[in-house]
Amino acid sequence: MLERRNPLSKIAAVVPAMVLVALATEVYLPLALAGLALAILLIGGVSLRRIAWALLPLALVALGFLLVYPLLVRRELVAHTPVVMQWGGWVVHEGALRLGAIATARITALVSLSLIFSVTTSVNDFLLALVQQARVPYRVGYAAMAALRFAPLLRYELEQIRAAHRVRGLAQRGIVGELAHVRRALVPLLASAIRRAERAALAMDGRAFGAYPQRTYWRRVPLGAVDVLFVLLLWGTTALIVLILHALGLLGPLSFVQRV
User: Which residue ranges make up each domain of the chain?
Assistant: First the structure.
């Protein structure tokens, strides 16, 4: 399943597909790669409900992008195409709709491909893989891991401060009230963060953190033959999609810059 795959292998597997999506000038390649990403997620054990929740914000953004983008295209680029809609001074050509559809398909494909990594990988596993396989200094990796652990603690501290303010009758409604709450909560939250950082630093010093160039690991994130096979399989499938679209004449030219 995808959760058991090495995080670096998932990144390596989707990077070529993302590059091709960025180069695409037709809708067929991005849509095909988006479909491939969704199929991999389903086969990899990700529930359809989880995928739908992850793609819901994308659907809203894509809809807005599809509606607004045709209005921003330079008219001289699409003036030779038929007029689809005209409202006052706004004229929408068929070519503008096509460019908007291509841009929307690009965004959809990029987000869908990124889900292969984002919804199946924990931050801790990713940082461990960076340290163990990518040879990132463990001081950097563990410092980032400790910093991420502070986020839920500080959120809990903020909730406690808000509750204390409500008990004292300091809670206010509206934007002005929220700004006043931020001003009152800033100092105690900062003091709590400093105390926790000092305790974490003392604990790391007590365990000789950084004293040796290498360290042992309680848990390893392996990079095995299955991970390599996963990368090669996704690369091969991506290449097959490109070849099929090219044979059907649906690939179109590849370019980093899409003129609008």
Answer: 2-125+223-247, 136-206
